Amino acid sequence: MSSDKKRKAPSSTEAPASIAVKVRSGEDARTPYIATFPGVTAPQNLTFDAYKRKKPKKSSEAKDVVLHGSTDRIEFDAQNFGHGEEGLCDYYVGIYDKSTNKVEIVPAPHVHVTRTVKALKNISRDDKGRQQYREARNALGEAFGTKKAKQAIKSQDANKVEASTLDNVADAIVSDVKAATKNMPTKEDMKREQEEDRPIPTPNVESETPAGVYPLDTVISPAELSIINVKPFLAPDLATDKKKREGLLPYRQSTYVTDRLTKILSSNAEKKDTHRLKLLYYASLLMAFYVNHRVAGKKDILSTKLGSPPQILVDGFISRYTEQPGGDARPVVTAKRLDKVLCYLFVVCLHLDNFSVDMNMLAADLSLKAARTQELFRTLGCKVMGCTETQRVALNISKAEARNYKRAVLKCPPEFPEVRKRIMAKR
Asked: Domain range for residue 305?
């Protein structure tokens, strides 16, 4: 037989090599996506990044994905949820692995890719739609509208401002604002100014003792303190005559002052504490000034109301606690200066009571609300504290009374409240 004889064709009945088929049930990081690009041809080298929710709130959101790719001028975006959801059918892709002779059928969600020109990114779709609607409406108005409608369209076009033309104006405004605010105080400067504006003596926050926080000479000068004469209080007949004792005080309606005056004069000590007597007299003088502050502009009347103290004390009150608003020659005590009178009085009381003061008694003496009294003591850096059981027994008050009993305690360092901005009331 000739060697050139043709070979027989393989039999058609011979079994082909078998191919294994595997179906992937869900999506994972290798999931492919079928994308359509309506109205645009994507560059060949365009790549997309896929993003998923970190913590989906619902199980259905676990499959949500956002695809994003971009070139120098255009951004491409797609998503498989919301307006990009494809709910009519499911797509699958068969992936053939030649080395293993296997085909894997995997889900391939279908997405529509939208494009956005980067230069026009700030213009939303809604803005474009509204602009097109407005242009169409104006065209109809100019063609078929009344004379009044046409005039309104012309007026609207004349007053229209293009955002692009505002860039130079905005730069000029920013420049003017920077120039105008160049010398404005900083937040720290304003805070320091507000703290200095508090109606209290200048505190020594570095002091290690309460007495050093507000030294007495920040409230009353040594000259004023030395001129106070307390010898009339030391007369022998006053030790038992309460009415005469109270008659020597500038303000006679203060339980706070009279109680402490009685304790000093009734003590068995050979030498009475004249320093405390002077402070009590000065505290009574401050109370009398507070009650009669409306006559501060009339020195003679004020002096009489204060019990005719030495003139240096009256002059000190007028210079320390009054103002002359609008250049008026007659001094007045403003609301802010009235707070200053109370704060300086409370400092004297702190020194008298070893820096733990019964606020209820002072509030009752001066007809002050408890809230205002507490606020002023807090302004001084004091802590407002209640009454312990031991103190309640010592004060001989009931448990019901103890619930409303408050003391102001000054400790080191003092704790000042945050300065709050005043909000002007609406008219």
From this structure: 210-353
Q: Residues of the chain with pLDDT > 90: what percent?
A: 29
Say how far apart CA 114 and CA 273 lie, in whole Å: 92
Backbone angles phi, psi at 391, to 5 degrees: -65, -35
Rounded CA separation 26/214 (Å): 76
- Bond preceding residue 109 cis, omega within 30 of 0: no
The residue out of 353, 388, 411 marking a domain boundary is 353
Residue 319 lies in a domain: yes
Indicate the DSSP class of residue 203. Answer: P
Q: Give yes or no: residues 337 and 229 share one domain.
A: yes
> Could you report the per-residue pLDDT of 81-122, keeping only the tens digit for each?
776 566 667 788 888 888 888 888 888 888 888 888 877 776
Both 113 and 216 in a single domain? no
Residue type for position 88: L
Question: Looking at per-residue confidence, does 148 or 382 come out higher?
Answer: 382
Q: Do the domain assignments include residue 97?
A: yes
Considering only CA atoms, which of 293, 348, 352, 285 is closest in space to residue 323? 293
- The answer to whether residues 334 and 226 belong to one domain is yes
333-361 confidence digits (pLDDT tens): 989 999 999 999 999 999 999 999 989 99
333 neighbors 341 (Cβ within 8 angstroms): yes
Mean pLDDT to the nearest integer, 27-32: 71
**55 domain residue, yes or no:** yes
- What distance in Å separates the CA atoms of residue 98 and residue 110, rounded to the nearest whole number? 26
Indicate the residue among 101, 120, 139 that finishes a domain.
120
Number of domains in the chain: 2
Q: How many CB atoms are located within 10 Å of the residue 218 CB?
A: 15
In a domain, 197, yes or no: no
322 lies in the same domain as 222: yes
Same domain, 110 and 222: no
Instruction: Compute the distance between CA of residue 79 and CA of residue 402 in angstroms, rounded to an integer.
Output: 68
Alpha-carbon torsion angle 187, 191, 197, 203, nearest 10? -150
Which residue has 């059918």 as its token pair? 89
What residues contact 75, with CB distance under 8 A and at least 6 apart?
A: 68, 69, 115, 116, 118, 121
Contact 417, 425 (CB under 8 A): no
> 239 and 106 share a domain?
no
How many CB atoms are closer than 10 A to CB 240?
Answer: 10
Q: Which residue has the tokens 């998503």?
A: 79
111 & 231 share domain: no
Contact predicate 354/173, CB 8 Å: no
For 3, the token pair is 């060697």
